[in-house]
Amino acid sequence: MPPDCPSPHPxxxxxxxxxxxxxLQSLAMVLPTATKLEWIDAAYAxxxxxxxxxxxxxxxxxxxxxDTGELVAHAKRLPGLSVSVLVPNLKGAERALASGAxxxxxxxxASRAHSVANLRKTPQEAVAMVREMRAARDAAGSSMxxxxxxxxxxxxTLQGAVPPGEVLRLVADLLEAGAxxxxxADTVGYADPAAVRRLFGQARRIAGDRLCCxxxxxxRGLGLANALAALDSGVARFDACLAGxxxxxxxxxASGNVSTEDLVFMLESMGIGTGVDMARLLALxxxxxxxxxxxxxxxxxxRAGLPRTYxxxxxxx
Length: 317
Known about the structure:
The protein is of the alpha/beta class.
């Protein structure tokens, strides 16, 4: 691109850390609450201002996330931090409202098979649940945001192909049901950049700026490429997990989510500000090695290190 041409990308982007929920729920070990609090504090100190700290699910199902309420209470004391939680049902939404979190993410799948396996609800039943959550939120006089996350948007290991029209219908239905915003997720790592540009472009024509976030898994090594494609479509918020942990129980052998440190490095190298201090983030990544022994950790930047040219000199071609 000639130096006098404006960048097609935004000047800034947000990386929402979801490792404390999406990452840890996929691991067999239970990380101590004190360690999770240390993680939140270190991510905040590194400049991250959106963190998904857990999920309000029964402890018997996910003991890894049993301390979500305590994590929310701690995170809410950090000025300027947006605290998110995942809620799979109305009971979880009620607990989220009581916790004082800033945002509840409601996951639903465009794949009927995955929706039933994951939520024990069809996609339309999940949309109806969002309507109930909106009513409960409004009745409580809460300002908490409701985000409808459409998973398996690019395909499903259980169902196979997922028609784009079904994804787009759910985007429209979620907004009509009262979701404040929507996001799209490549839950099992089936997406490619062309498909991402196409589907996010179509979804943006329906949702506008309320299409707020992209969530990619690096299952087949295309996580960053897909993030760039979503960036091209106008998305400026991305989910990512420290050390690329996590995955989906319905995608056996999957490598996990896009690595936070790799995604921040790519964005910052492109001149897109994230507000994240890379040195502090890499120190947090080093701590993850101690916290998660014998667990599969990922990320190219961790292996290779920062290049000598980082950050690029101002005005570099």
